[in-house]
Backbone:
């Protein structure tokens, strides 16, 4: 009940704010060269400044961080998990892995690769740990970025999230724009979760429009449990509701005994999933959220901002292979909408792969089907770097 009461109060505040005239600002700007930001207490040099606008965080509402870098030849710090989930964090594989036999699996020993892991709403960095471990075991750097639900219900109305996304975009641009000290070229993979991660990715891509030199360095895009329902209030409500109630899917739950990744293989037990009827609190919460988002996403400024972000990731995405991971058991993102997007993307001639995981819940495909999930990732990355080798 406490969660529902907090949401009602937050919703009232949001409505009062949205009824006040606001001026829309450009979502992401390339910065002044002297701009400096702090992430988890560490100073880094950003490539742009940001002017926060309370309305700018809206595309992310529903969708259920030694030296980091200088602008020349710098390396991400050693593998670590910060004490909190503020900002973004670099996770670097051990040096003996970077040039080891696992790196040769994907033919990327001549390039330095970073995967950008963009979490679902309510995720914490620890929830992305096993993905980081798997990528690191292949000699791939990882950046993790997460958004907590409380950040969007705070007094600053998500302006901190907006700034963090801009900081992340600047960091990515700074890293990929340069070579490694040994002359290796740098490239990127995006791995997004839910519509939150998908929207963050769209915002970053929107900031790169017109920068073909940078867009060409994106070698793969993975969309896990996202990519649909950008203008559907039920999707927004389901994602936000799942984050508030700390569920992978609203109206569903799973019990999982986590395993450990040991070397190349993941040993994780299959989730025992059960459907149950939503309780009265969940029903009230979803109804309230759906009404709230029905209003919010139709505000002209918000609607245009969502269109811009979605267009960047659907109409003007990087010319690299795409992989969609989804399921019929996802109660947040309707699988039919994902399949429609996949078909639309294929009609444009883009190389699009897809995997459907049956009954697994929202952003729960890896825990439910670990062997298959990692196998599909492995095959996709081989395709991405085979494409790089041909070009």
Residues:
């Amino acid at each position: 009940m406490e969660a529902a009461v907090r949401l009602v109060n937050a919703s009232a505040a949001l409505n009062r704010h949205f009824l006040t005239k606001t001026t829309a600002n450009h979502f992401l700007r390339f910065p002044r060269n002297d701009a400096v930001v702090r992430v988890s207490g560490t100073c880094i040099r950003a490539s742009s400044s940001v002017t926060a606008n309370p309305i700018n965080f809206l595309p992310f509402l529903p969708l259920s961080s030694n030296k980091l870098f200088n602008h020349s030849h710098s390396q991400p710090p050693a593998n670590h998990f910060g004490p909190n989930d503020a900002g973004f964090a670099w996770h670097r594989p051990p040096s003996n892995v970077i040039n080891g036999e696992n790196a040769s699996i994907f033919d990327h020993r001549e390039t330095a690769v970073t995967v950008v892991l963009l979490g679902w709403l309510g995720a914490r960095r620890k929830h992305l740990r096993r993905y980081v471990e798997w990528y690191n075991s292949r000699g791939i750097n990882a950046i993790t970025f997460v958004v907590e639900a409380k950040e969007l219900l705070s007094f600053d109305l998500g302006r901190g999230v907006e700034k963090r996304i801009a900081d992340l975009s600047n960091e990515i641009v700074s890293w990929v724009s340069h070579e490694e000290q040994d002359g290796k070229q740098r490239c990127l993979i995006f791995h997004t979760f839910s519509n939150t991660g998908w929207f963050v990715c769209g915002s970053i891509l929107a900031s790169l429009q017109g920068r073909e030199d940078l867009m060409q360095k994106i070698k793969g895009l993975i969309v896990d449990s996202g990519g649909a329902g950008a203008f559907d209030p039920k999707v927004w409500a389901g994602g936000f509701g799942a984050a508030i109630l700390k569920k992978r899917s609203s109206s569903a739950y799973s019990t999982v005994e986590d395993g450990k990744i040991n070397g190349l293989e993941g040993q994780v037990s299959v989730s025992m999933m059960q459907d149950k009827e939503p309780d009265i609190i969940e029903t009230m919460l979803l109804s309230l959220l759906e009404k709230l988002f029905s209003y919010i996403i139709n505000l002209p400024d918000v609607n245009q901002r969502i269109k811009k972000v979605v267009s960047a990731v659907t109409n003007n995405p990087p010319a690299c292979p795409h992989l969609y991971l989804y399921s019929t058991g996802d109660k947040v993102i309707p699988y039919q909408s994902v399949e429609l997007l996949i078909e639309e993307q294929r009609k444009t001639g883009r190389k699009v792969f897809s995997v459907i995981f049956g009954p697994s819940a929202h952003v729960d495909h890896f825990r439910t089907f670990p062997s298959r999930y990692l196998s599909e990732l492995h095959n996709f990355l081989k395709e991405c770097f085979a494409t790089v080798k041909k070009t």
Notes: Residues 370-390 form the longest helix (21 residues). The first strand starts at residue 36 and ends at 39. The chain has a mean pLDDT of 75.
